[in-house]
Write a structure and sequence with these properties.
14% strand; 10 strands; single chain; binds zinc ion; 333 residues; eight-stranded parallel beta sheet
């Protein structure tokens, strides 16, 4: 069984009328999973209008209610001063990160809820309640460094999940694959010198895209040298380039590392229709990427895979691609 963790409350993080990381992203995903009949509960946003052109599927996901995270969860990665800074900024509706990361009064609570969705998904997989799980929540996390919230991200959700799995379940080797079109600088910063987490990021080349890091020569430091793998792709690349890179570099890295669990930073902004980047991945490309990761999980982790939403800013492309991602997660092998 594959779990789906989300909360309609994630729309309460209000980034203003023109921000790409907006509440409608969550509404589009909720509509998409219902149009595909992956989820049977009523749509929490019935008034939201969008035409996704998604056909009904035979697969069903298990809906899992999220538990909000606490500041002590966030402290697995972030110092208290960062947490306090986010909290106080949200109280005043301040904009973090030189204008990129707006907040509102609810943002602190919703950032912890988004983190909680990711932890809930990980707990469900670690306990064996389901084989794989997807957390559909916002704000995203992979740009947040231990000391710095940035790039629409407050807390480093997937990095905190990795630490949580190590602490709570004794997992020793965690692999994170990040296929968001932007480099996962935050996740990388958390584990650069730590060999207990393999971090692999596929992204548009840093010379053409935010945040400008993620060169192939960034391979980790000290004892963590060799457990950071950056795969920058030239702008304009699509399904063929992504799948070739996964086959040539990502899967061999996972094979060599032999993780206890596979975590996925699932951003859908490498889509051809995405407004923020210059890659050409199709809906089907996201399904094929996911199928390869599922296969790697089947080989090394007993199938255990936890996927956490990152970016994806064209609402139709996002909704459709998330459904294809979920189909690949849920299909029996
Ligand atoms: Zn992104």
């Amino acid at each position: 069984m594959v779990g789906f963790v989300s909360s309609p409350r994630c729309v309460e993080h209000d980034t203003g009328p023109h921000h790409p990381e907006r509440p409608d992203r969550l509404r589009a995903i909720h509509r998409a999973v219902r149009d595909a009949r992956l989820i049977e509960s009523p749509d929490p946003f019935p008034e939201f209008e969008i035409d996704l052109g998604i056909a009904s599927q035979l697969l069903r996901l298990a809906e899992i209610a999220p538990k909000s995270a606490t500041e002590s969860d966030a402290r697995l990665i972030h110092p208290q001063r960062l947490i306090d800074n986010v909290k106080h900024s949200c109280e005043f509706g301040a904009v973090l990160d030189m204008g990129d990361t707006p907040t509102c009064a609810a943002s602190f609570e919703i950032a912890l809820l988004s983190l909680g969705c990711a932890i809930t998904a990980a707990d469900a997989v670690a306990r064996g309640d389901c084989r794989r799980a997807f957390a559909a929540a916002r704000p995203p996390g992979h740009h947040a460094e231990p000391d710095r919230s940035m790039g629409f991200c407050f807390f480093s959700n997937i990095a905190i999940v990795a630490r949580h799995l190590q602490r709570a379940y004794g997992m020793e080797r965690i692999a994170i694959v990040d296929f968001d079109v932007h480099h996962g600088n935050g996740t990388q910063a958390c584990f650069e010198d730590d060999p207990s987490v393999l971090f692999v990021s596929l992204h548009e080349h840093p010379s053409t895209l935010y945040p400008g890091s993620g060169q192939a020569w960034e391979v980790g430091d000290g004892p963590g040298r060799g457990t950071t793998l950056n795969i920058p792709l030239n702008p304009g690349g699509g399904d063929t380039e992504y799948l070739a890179a996964i086959d040539a570099k990502v899967l061999p890295a996972i094979d060599k590392y032999k993780p206890d669990i596979l975590l996925v930073s699932a951003g859908f902004d490498a889509h051809a229709d995405d407004p923020l980047a210059h890659m050409q991945v199709s809906d089907d490309g996201f399904e094929q990427i996911t199928r390869r990761l599922v296969q790697a999980a089947e080989i090394h982790t007993g199938g255990r895979l936890v996927s956490v939403l990152e970016g994806g800013y064209n609402l139709v492309a996002l909704g459709r691609s998330v459904v294809r991602h979920l189909i690949a997660l849920a299909d029996p092998i």
